[in-house]
Amino acid sequence: MDGRSMIPLKDIVPSAQTNIKTQFILLDKGRTATEGQNKTCLALVADETAAVHFQLWGDECDAFEPGDIIHLTNGIFSYNRKSLVLRAGKRGNIEKVGEFTMAYVETPNMSEIRWAPDPNNSKKYVHEAVISTHSRIFPPLA
């Protein structure tokens, strides 16, 4: 384990760096799609502070199920086809560390926020607007 502390989902921001260390519960999983040689699927994940869309690749699509608690190291939060997703990326790692027992919220969804470059620091992003309070891909059950 590296020395960095875990980041709550509400504190993640878009970045080209793979440095996100966090833990969340998988709430829902979309259809598996094939992009060239790669199999992908989108999931809705959350912790006690926020929710986000999480991109699973290849064998990860079959390895994780709703209810799994997942630990992510060296993750990246960036755009994939105009959609902001959290993912492990090439250097990241995800592993199941438990199941079912984790407090979570479904709002805000960090993937449903429009981000803009920080006028004071072009390497950082700031919230510009909320596109939707809930996931538009995984609507709330209520």
TrEMBL record:
Protein keywords: DNA-binding
SUPFAM superfamilies linked to this entry: Nucleic acid-binding proteins
InterPro entries documented for this protein: NA-bd_OB-fold, SOSS-B
GO CC terms of this entry: chromosome; SOSS complex
Protein's GO biological process: double-strand break repair via homologous recombination; mitotic G2/M transition checkpoint; response to ionizing radiation
GO MF term (any one): DNA binding
Protein name: OB domain-containing protein
Phylogenetic lineage: Eukaryota, Viridiplantae, Streptophyta, Embryophyta, Tracheophyta
